[in-house]
Design a protein that fits this description.
Length: about 70
């Protein structure tokens, strides 16, 4: 089970990439998002939008303690 998700922006050549890093008990996994961004601001906006969407979707998941109507 993953412990957390860290997001960073790395410059590779002339482009910026978004990198997700998951911390597992015995390993760390880096996953580079395939889309390239021309500026760091574009990459940061992508990260902000993705994290906002993740919070919204998590809030929509049915909870196990919810009482059905």
């Amino acid at each position: 089970m993953p412990k957390g998700l860290d997001v960073s922006i790395r410059q590779v050549g002339a482009y910026f990439h978004v990198v997700y890093q998951r911390q597992y008990p015995n390993a760390v996994e880096d996953v580079m998002y395939s889309e390239r961004f021309k500026t760091q601001e574009e990459a940061q906006k992508f990260v902000d939008d993705a994290l906002r969407a993740q919070r919204i979707y998590r809030s929509l998941e049915p909870r196990s303690d919810a009482v059905p109507l």
